Amino acid sequence: MPPSSGHHWSARPRGRAPGYSQLPRTQDCVVLYLNLRLVRKALRHRALVIIDDIIEESRRELIEEKLPSGLRKIYLAETRRFVKLLIAQLEWYGVPYEFKRLPSTICPICGSELTQLQGRIMVCENCGFKAPRDKIPIHWALKAMPKAKVGSS
Fold first, then answer.
1. What is the pLDDT of residues 66-82, one digit of tens each?
2. DSSP 149
3. What residue numbers bound the domain in which 108 lies?
4. How many CB atoms lie within 10 A of CB 70?
5. Within 10 A of 60 (CB to CB), how many other CB atoms are there?
6. pLDDT tens for residues 40-58?
7. Strand order in the sheet with 121-124
8. Is the CB of residue 123 less than 8 Å from the CB of residue 114?
9. Label partner for 112 (CA 20 to 30 A): which of 2, 7, 39, 97?
């Protein structure tokens, strides 16, 4: 019920134009907050940001998973949106970045194919490396980082 103070209530819904986002406004705030937090951390540490370059094979695997189609579409769209916003902020602040494929099915130690166990645990039959599938790309990112020099020369 409208207030009696004479405030005009519009019949038009407030917020964004239709179709801008199917997710609630708080989701957009979280995406922006996480992007800015990542950019500020990169600025503070003068770091190169490595963005995992998702390949068609990974996209196909996601599509083949037993996710509801609406959720799958949102996941793919929001992943692209997150990366697009991240790139815009990195460029705005002058933070260097590069796209690099960080595989989750290849062993970061010896380069052999990993075998998936139950619970998305990946194991290398060649060298014995074992890790959750979602954490293997960080091993590749750490391997790609230049070695820091400790102490003075």
1. 767 777 777 777 778 88
2. P
3. 103-145
4. 9
5. 9
6. 999 999 888 888 877 666 6
7. 114-117, 121-124, 130-132
8. yes
9. 97
Residue 150 lies in a domain: no
Does pTM surpass 0.70?
A: no
Q: Are the C-beta atoms of residues 38 and 90 closer than 8 Å to each other? A: no
61 domain-assigned: yes
Contact 97, 48 (CB under 8 A): yes
Among residues 103, 127, 128, 124, the alpha carbon closest in space to that of 115 is found at 124
pLDDT at 26: 66
* Token duo for residue 3: 């207030």
CA-based end-to-end distance of the chain: 74
| Number of residues written out for the chain | 153
Residue of higher predicted confidence among 118 and 73:
118
Number of H helices, E strands in the chain: 4, 5
**pLDDT confidence tier of residue 25, bands split at 50, 70 and 90:** low
Same-domain check for residues 130 and 68: no
